[in-house]
Amino acid sequence: MANEHRTARVNSGDVSLFYRVFGKPGAMPILILHGSNYYDSVDWIEVASALATDREVVTPDRRGWGESTWSPSKDNSLDALLDDMLAVIRVMKWSKAIVMGHSGAGPTIISFAVNFPQMTEKLILVDSQMNREEGARTGKSIGNPPIIFESVEAAMAKHKFSNPPRLAWDRKRAEQAFVKVDQGFMLKRDPDGSNRQPIGEGASLPRRPVREMWEELGMVKVPTVIVRGNRSSRYPAETIERLTKNYPHIPQAVVDAEHDVAGQAPDALIAHVRKFIAGS
Fold it and tell me: How many angstroms separate the CA atoms of 72 and 14, rounded?
């Protein structure tokens, strides 16, 4: 059956992570991380299923997104996100994986490859945001109100901006992205999800170094590829020039899409990934 998979949960720190498992053990497994805008693992079902014909593919909901729980300590730090990746890999009993991340997951998987090269077979950046401000990795943002819309239609209309997520045009997907509350429909996302400074006991824990992401990209030793949309706002000319000049060893595969590559060009994305991971 197309897109058949199982779902499960694993505890990581103070959250319960929801994840989807496709395929069976075989070739090198793949871990797919969704972005940090209005995406969760639902958006990756088609791609994950197609890539799982000869291996296991897992795609979790990021802490505070989708069906994963919100962190009581507001710990959405880089450390927490890396620990979440480790939790999923360990529960799957993998020793190594191909790591793939979309959009805001890019900086996280780059850091994972740098911190855990022995666990990273290959790295796939899907339209990753390369020009993130450092505050996006270290900033404080708590006490934000939940994002609520009066109706699903209102939510869809609100998201019809440049490079819109799938929920802007797919009614079924939009319905999956929200939960009904007294005031209307709340986005399944922790409004403090961008907070990188945990509160309570977690604030005093030792932390891994947070480096500038371009620096970390240069520290990655595993084979890496970038798959980007030709109409994506995430790759202005200066970013493409910087990548081409300073990271010539990283190939760039271009597909006909805006930012939501998995939604707008799934076949092309799958083809590029299959070519890159051949033999793994």
Answer: 7
- Kindly state whether residues 224 and 175 are assigned to the same domain: no
Question: In this model, does residue 201 exceed pLDDT 80?
Answer: no
Domain of 232: which CATH number? 3.40.50.1820
In this prediction, residues 81-107 reach a mean pLDDT of: 97
- Our count of domains for the chain comes to 2
Is residue 137 located within the same domain as residue 156?
no
Q: Residue 14: CB partners within 8 Å, gap ≥ 6?
A: 71, 72, 73, 75, 202
Measure the CA–CA gap between 180 and 124, rounded to whole angstroms.
35
The continuous run of DSSP H or E covering 171 comes out as helix 171-177
Is residue 48 domain-shared with residue 15, that is, in the same domain?
yes
Give dist(CA 97, CA 93) in Å, integer.
11
Per-residue burial over 114-128, b if 16 or more Cβ lie within 10 Å, else e, is bbbeebbbbbbbbbb
Do 15 and 70 fall within a single domain?
A: yes
Tell me: the pLDDT tens digits for 149-159? 999 999 999 98
pTM: 0.95
| Owning domain of residue 168 | 148-188
210-267 pLDDT per residue, tens? 888 899 999 999 999 999 999 998 999 999 999 999 999 999 999 999 999 999 999 9
